[in-house]
Design goal:
Chain lengths: 219, 538, 178, 356
């Protein structure tokens, strides 16, 4: 055993190591009052420039977690995105709950209309606030939950998956049924007002499901 | 007996095996520095034992299997501490009743590897001490990594309601003496650094026996990777180990580049080496502060280390945009070039770290209590360390100087001079010395590389390919020797992606360290193993 | 989560159901008087000391409890005092993917926490299972196992995102909305 | 200095006069007077002390923050001053869960008993020249006895929690008591040897000219180390070692009970620190030159809080020994040192007494 005197002297060194910080200025950034400047390459929440987009869908293909999806544009909600010629006008919907912030879609976009913003303070009490319709994704308009569901009614995958698979089958059946009705309307087998009545009824069903999800599972 | 050059050449091993096991060998070939031997399934153990005794291959790097349509192909990789050659034994088993002799009788390190293969492919290993599922719960049906696997509905809802107690298995298996107690240090416990369960059999205050249970965040990365394209898997492998994610996705991109036959530009290799070494420093800092928090300095060193780590995270954020999951390197190079002013900040941060290192050493080595808590605690002698399959700093702490960056240099480690930090007696204190030495070595490496970065393009555009063939790359992860093995069969997504994780092997050495040890030493031993559960559970 | 007096708690070793007997009339009246009179004090106290129980499942565990508690973003400024046992915790931070083997542990921890408790799902893995959503062993989202109050997206979210959530939680609890 | 004394005495007369008038009005029998007077003394003492308790808890958190190079607790109140009130009120209104198989009676009794036993020694401690609630001849033995009661209670608490970890934590506290009890008592005895009286008041008055730390440096060091063990604070906090056994014996206690345990811990700290100041740092006497500037009570509190800052500093710098190492420290190093110290004071007794 080393002799005790040297041990006791050496025991004082940790005290010196911690004591030094008593006189130093704390390293804390007082968050709400002074915010930390984020690096200019920081990958925050995505930002989407809706006018540069040509609806090619390369970003939808590049995303590993299927967070983006082509949806009817804001100005013409009844557009049929299945046939390729109309798809040029379709725009991107986005679910913040799925995004991995890996920016593979930013590199895949030929027109570079997707790029990361410096925004990171996102918090929501309601799971469905994280899903964004195209105009919300482009920070144009703040939609309520009903408008957002109606904008996303013809999404194949996003609406169902955004609730963490709780009511995925029911919502997917609603959206597929809506797409058949839309196809019939495009081929004008049924009249427009019959189509819009069916759309309103399906919309109401989807909204009830999401409300049930919020009450039963979330709160 | 054989000189160094002869040992470094795979042909020598193939000729030796041919004239020793002429009849049993089906085919031999050389792939890079791998000596590949196809063997009948009945004599795999015989050839492996011969490779261990005569050719003195020290440890199995990993054991994996490939599900060809008509048969299961077993693949064993063995590493040699003296030469860069990797000895690979491959054999074909039929799909319905795959049975092969286990290697655990003479190679205890293969114990967990075989349990994983039983769990994932259903291969039965005769003579294995306790062949049980490792990742998935015991009553799971089906073997996930087989191509024809259809996931059945696992009744986790009933389990949650009925507070299903998973230790019925232990009640009949371990006859507890009257003065013994079985303690579950459950998935949520401060000292475990992650979600795994340490089952401990305690008599009074000393532990008689301890063994880990893992699989609490097993998410089937290898199965998911078979469904994604090559560049989409980068974010997936990036989230393997959350403390050193840079080393994992760089290893993945290097393996895919080897598969595609693409050579990244020289500037990208420089950037990758620098960033890997920075990640090693951050990983060792986190290990040090975790050990300090566990043996009880009330988080003071824990928070100094985190302050140190914040400076490195700022650098990572400036270069690739994220704090923890970087997805920075791409196939054929690096996503973005170095921003200007980054090199000076890096020099500042390294100088800052060098100023603070003696302060951390004071806080730890100064107090006599630290020496009492770490000297000859959880010792792994040189033989048991090699036998049990310890990796990286755990191995180098037991007086074995083996480092993949020296034996089989990749990226720029060939023309950078650094030496391997080793220590003598393999206890928690020598592991502390090894890791602190490695931090100093990494600082030296970065300082050598910083001023020699060539200009030029940092990324080569690589169009997505449909490769046919295999690629095996191994690197030195902060926790040890890690490797990836990709099989491409002409489609956009890989046919099979194997991930060899060093922390998995380090965790399997814990039962060797927990033999009649005071109960309070568990904290120091578990902290000294530097576990990263994301990488262990895959 | 209002404080309910009669509550059916799942049994530990599935014997008879363990019903919390109704509190005597005197106690309930005193409790209602206190809540009416000092409601603001209770809410203020509950909002200013959100004791945190963090689970440390995967990568978000390095960002939220560790880096958020680090000297740079000090979460103890909001009165967070990390106890190590669920019995003394108010806020449970779930920060990783929930596998089918781990679901019962989460539920057991949730039941052990005393009543006014808030669950914060941090990161994509807790919200919908993250990049491993399609895996055979992952439950997509914590809200399949326990009810969740606050979602913080991010993979992993920055520590300031959690501090922002703490701030919002403080305001909501002070006004008694949560 | 004298204005302070007569302020105290006048306020005390005022209180006594109130009590006498109440006695006359309700004509309560006279033999009840003395117990009631002592009772009021104790109540005033505890009220003043709880203010000090709140301050200790607050500035310990701020101090730990500063040692960790971070600012802690700034959001509640001006500098986080109201944080303890918020914590305590929140703990009061949280739901209290008693595990099914736990011993309900003990689960409710132990916290209250723990707080009571921590508060009792306060009665005997002399804060100022005649500022004490009771002046017993053998007050040192009374305080040390009360201190040695807590490990017994911790064993009960560990048992009441019906949890493997808390049981282990409780057994450890019992073992730790064996390690620190004897050296602590012997170190105290060497002080008693100098003043040959067990009364804390006479011990502190004896230190008017010279503090006993000058005469007993080794005794002071031993008492410091053993008092850290007695308080179960880092680096000797094995019973509730955060890392190994989740929160030690406190894991199963919920809301208000956990609050009582935390409060009792700080009362315990105050008691042991004041015992150290009385035995070695000269009670309420200020340092020689600037002594008379402040009233004696303030000197007493300053010394207690300076010692407390040193304890927090020690708490942050040293790792925690194993149980057998702790016992080895107690028996192989502290106990022989304490005996040696006792013998040396006995031999040098005439010279040391001459110095007092």
């Amino acid at each position: 055993m080393t002799n005790p005197i040297r041990v006791i002297i050496r025991m004082l060194r940790p005290l010196k190591a911690t004591g030094k910080y008593l006189v130093k200025k704390p390293f804390t950034v007082m968050y709400p009052y002074e915010k930390l400047k984020v690096a200019d390459r920081f990958r925050g929440v995505l930002y989407y420039e809706i006018e540069k987009c040509i609806g090619c869908g390369l970003c939808v293909r590049a995303c590993p977690n299927k967070t983006l999806e082509l949806v009817a544009p804001p100005e013409n909600p009844d557009l049929d995105i299945t046939n390729p010629k109309e798809r040029i006008k379709a725009r991107i919907a986005f679910d913040l709950g799925h995004c991995l912030y890996c920016n593979l879609c930013v590199e895949a976009c030929p027109k570079s209309c997707l790029h990361p913003s410096h925004e990171y303070e996102v918090m929501s009490l309601d799971r469905f606030d994280l899903v964004m319709a195209p105009e919300e994704f482009a920070r144009r308009k703040k939609l309520s939950m009903e408008e957002r569901v109606s904008r996303l009614l013809d999404s194949q995958y996003l609406l169902g998956a955004s609730l963490g698979g709780h009511y995925e089958e029911e919502i997917n059946s609603i959206t597929s049924e809506y797409r058949e009705v839309k196809k019939k309307m495009i081929k004008n087998e049924i009249s427009y007002d019959e189509y819009s009545a069916k759309r309103k009824e399906l919309l109401q069903k989807a909204i009830n499901i999401i409300k049930r999800y919020n009450e039963e599972v979330h709160k | 007996m054989a000189t160094k050059e002869v040992l470094a050449n795979p042909e020598y091993y193939l000729t030796e095996t041919k004239n020793k096991f002429g009849d049993v060998i089906e085919e031999t070939k050389v792939v890079g520095n791998q000596a590949v031997v196809y063997v009948k399934s009945s004599s795999v153990a015989k050839v492996a034992r011969w490779a261990k005794e005569e050719m003195n291959f020290k440890q199995p790097i990993w054991l994996t299997a490939i599900d060809n349509k008509d048969n299961l192909e077993l693949v064993y990789f063995f590493n040699h501490f003296g030469s860069p050659v990797i000895y690979t034994i491959r054999s074909f088993l039929d799909r319905d009743n795959p049975v092969v002799e286990s290697l655990t009788s003479f190679w205890p390190a293969a114990n967990w590897l075989e349990r994983e293969m039983y769990d994932m492919f259903g291969i039965k290993f005769e003579g294995h001490p306790n062949l049980r599922r490792l990742y998935l719960p015991d009553d799971w049906e089906g073997y996930p990594l087989r191509k024809d696997y259809v996931p059945k509905e696992y009744p986790w809802k009933e389990r949650v309601e009925s507070y299903y107690d998973s230790n019925e298995y232990y009640k009949e298996h371990f006859k507890l003496a009257d003065n013994e107690m079985l303690i579950h240090m459950g998935p949520q416990h401060p000292i475990l650094h992650g979600t795994w369960k340490l089952m401990v059999r305690v008599r009074g205050d000393t532990i008689v026996e301890g063994w880990p249970e893992i699989g609490y965040i097993h998410r089937g990365t290898e199965k998911l990777a078979e469904g994604l394209r090559y560049e989409q898997i980068i974010p997936l492998t990036d989230r393997l180990c959350y403390v050193s994610s840079m080393s994992w996705h760089t290893l993945y991109t290097m393996t895919v580049e080897k598969l595609f036959g693409v050579e990244p530009p020289i500037r990208a290799q420089y950037i990758r080496t620098i960033v890997l070494e920075m990640q090693r420093i951050v990983s060792h800092i986190i290990w040090l502060i975790a050990l300090a928090a566990d043996i009880g300095t009330y988080h003071s060193l824990f928070l100094y280390g985190l302050r140190e780590r914040e400076k490195f995270l700022d650098l990572f954020e400036q270069i690739c945009g994220a704090r923890l999951t970087y997805t920075y390197s791409r196939i054929g190079g690096v996503a973005k070039d170095i921003p200007d002013g980054w090199i000076e900040k890096l020099k500042e941060t390294l100088a800052d770290l060098e100023r603070h290192m003696p302060e951390y050493r004071d806080l730890m080595e100064g107090s006599e209590l630290f020496h009492m808590r770490t000297r000859n605690v959880g010792t792994l002698s040189r033989e048991t360390a090699i036998e049990a399959g310890a990796r990286g700093p755990m191995l180098r702490a037991s007086n074995v100087s083996y480092d993949v960056r020296k034996i089989d240099p990749y990226l720029l480690y060939g023309d950078v001079d650094f030496d391997i930090a080793t220590a003598k007696d393999g206890d928690v204190y020598s592991r502390y010395l090894v890791r602190m030495g490695e931090v100093e070595e990494s600082i030296r490496i970065i300082q050598q590389l910083i001023d020699k970065i060539p200009s030029g393009e940092y990324r080569k555009k690589v169009s997505p390919k449909k490769p046919v063939g295999e690629a095996f790359v191994r690197t030195e992860d902060p926790r040890g020797e890690s490797a990836m093995f990709i099989v491409g069969r002409g489609t956009f997504n890989p046919y099979r992606l194997m991930i060899a994780t060093p922390a998995y092997m380090n965790l399997s050495t814990i039962p060797y360290m927990l033999k009649n040890v005071p109960f309070a030493d568990v904290a120091a031993i578990v902290a000294s193993v530097d576990l990263c559960m994301g990488e262990i559970d895959k | 989560m209002t404080q309910s007096d009669t509550k059916v708690v799942k049994p530990d070793e599935n014997e008879e159901v363990y019903v919390v007997k109704d509190a005597p009339i005197l106690l309930t009246t005193v409790r209602t008087i206190l809540r009416k009179g000092f409601g603001w004090l209770f809410n203020w106290a509950r909002s200013h000391s959100p004791w945190l129980l963090y689970l440390g499942i995967k990568c978000c565990a390095i960002e939220i409890p560790m880096a958020a508690g680090a000297p740079r973003f000090d979460m103890e400024r909001w009165g967070v005092f990390p106890p190590s046992s669920p019995r003394q915790a108010d806020v449970m931070v779930v920060n990783g993917p929930i596998t089918k083997k781990y679901a019962q542990v989460i539920k057991a921890l949730y039941d052990q926490m005393p009543e006014p408790k808030y669950i914060v799902a941090v990161g994509e893995c807790a919200i919908i299972g993250g990049p491993f959503k399609k895996s055979y062993n992952i439950i997509s989202g914590v809200d399949k196992v326990i009810p969740v109050d606050i979602y913080i997206p991010g993979c992993p979210p920055r520590p300031e995102a959690y501090l922002n959530a703490l701030n919002q939680l403080k305001k909501l609890v002070k006004r008694g909305r949560l | 200095m004298s204005w302070f004394d007569d302020m105290i005495s006048s306020s005390w007369e005022f209180i006594v006069s109130i009590i006498l008038t109440v006695f006359h009005v309700l004509n309560i029998p006279d033999w009840l007077l003395d117990p009631v007077l002592i009772l009021t003394k104790v109540i005033i003492l505890l009220l003043l002390f709880s203010l000090d308790l709140l301050m200790i808890v607050w500035y310990e958190r701020k101090l730990i923050g500063r040692f960790h190079n971070r600012r802690s607790v700034t959001e509640t109140g001006k500098f986080g001053l109201l944080q303890n009130i918020a914590d305590f009120v929140k703990l009061m209104i949280k739901e209290d869960i008693i595990p099914k198989k736990a011993d309900k009676f003990l689960h409710n009794l132990v916290p209250a008993l723990f707080m009571f036993l921590a508060m009792v020694p306060l009665v005997v401690i002399p804060f100022g020249p005649n500022l004490w609630a009771a002046n017993i001849e053998t007050s040192l033995i009374f305080v040390v006895a009360m201190l040695s009661m807590t490990p017994g209670l911790i064993l009960l608490g560990g048992w009441a929690g019906n949890n493997k970890f808390s049981a282990i934590g409780a057994f450890r506290s019992g073992l730790q008591m064996v390690a620190y009890e004897l050296p602590m008592a012997i170190a105290a005895m060497s002080v008693v040897l100098l003043t040959n009286s067990l009364n804390l008041v006479t011990i502190s008055t004896a230190q008017q000219r010279i503090w006993f730390i000058a005469l007993q440096p080794i005794g002071f060091l031993i008492f410091l180390v053993t008092s850290v063990m007695a308080l179960e604070r880092m680096p000797f906090d094995l019973p509730e070692a955060e890392a190994e056994i989740v929160a030690g014996w406190k894991t199963e206690f919920g809301s208000l009970k956990f609050g009582l345990f935390m409060g009792a811990e700080y009362v315990h700290v105050f008691v042991v620190l004041s015992l150290t100041t009385i035995l070695f740092l000269g009670g309420w006497y200020g340092p020689p030159v600037i002594g008379p500037l402040l009233p004696p009570v303030v000197w007493f509190l300053i010394k207690v809080h300076l010692l407390f800052i040193f304890y927090v500093w020690v708490r942050l710098s040293y790792p925690r020994p194993r149980l057998d190492q702790l016992l080895r420290i107690g028996w192989r190093w502290l106990f022989p040192l304490a005996l040696l110290n006792l013998i040396v004071t006995a031999l040098l007794h005439p010279y040391l007494v001459a110095l007092i």
